[in-house]
Write a structure and sequence with these properties.
The chain has 150 residues and is an alpha+beta fold. Helices cover 22% and strands 39% of the residues. It has three helices and nine strands. It has helices at residues 29-37, 39-45, 116-132; strands spanning 4-5, 9-13, 16-25, 49-52, 59-62, 66-74, 78-83, 87-95, 101-110. Strands 1, 2, 3, 4, 5, 6, 7, 8 and 9 form a nine-stranded antiparallel β-sheet that branches. Strand 4 and strand 5 (59-62) form a beta hairpin. Helix 1 packs across helix 2 (39-45). The chain is globular. It starts with a strand and ends in an 18-residue tail after the last helix. Mean pLDDT is 85; it is low at 136-150.
């Protein structure tokens, strides 16, 4: 699997916008989880993280999106952050084959600050990072590097 971003959908209800994406990723859920649930992982493709308490109700501060709370947390599956000024950002991972996963993404927000184009660019960085990385932040190598003896 090489990774792909399905056409995003957008809904508007008054001043509330809801943006949805489905992103197919070339790694397992367990491999992708750190990219959506750790400061290093989010910082590598989405935005710098000043604070993340990895638990339901924990504090979160996403530099370009806002500060708030972790409003859903199901390890290896769901990370949701609700931030003041940035709305609700939900990452839901699902298995997709033996060595891939699908990321169902929702961003519910007020105003016009975010766009489909900005999230698409972020997801392209995520896919490229997963494609080129042998490990993700917080993970150990599961196999030796070429030429490395075990």
């Amino acid at each position: 699997m090489s990774g792909s971003i399905a056409q995003g959908t957008s809904q508007t209800h008054g001043n509330t916008h809801i943006l949805h994406f489905q992103v197919r990723l070339p790694r397992t859920m367990e491999d992708v989880w750190p990219a959506v649930a750790t400061p290093e992982g989010l910082g590598a493709w989405c935005t710098a993280v000043d604070l993340l308490e990895p638990r339901l109700g924990g504090a979160v501060a996403l530099r370009d999106l806002g500060s708030g709370r972790v409003t859903a947390w199901d390890v290896d599956r769901v990370a949701e952050y609700t931030v003041e000024g940035g709305g609700r950002i939900r990452f839901h991972l699902e298995r997709a084959g033996a060595d891939g996963c699908a990321l169902r993404f929702t961003h519910e927000f007020q105003g016009e600050q975010e766009s489909e184009r900005r999230w698409r660019a972020r997801f392209e960085r995520l896919i490229e990072g997963l494609r080129s990385a042998r490990t993700l932040p917080g993970q150990e190598l599961s196999e030796p590097l070429p030429g490395q003896f075990t």
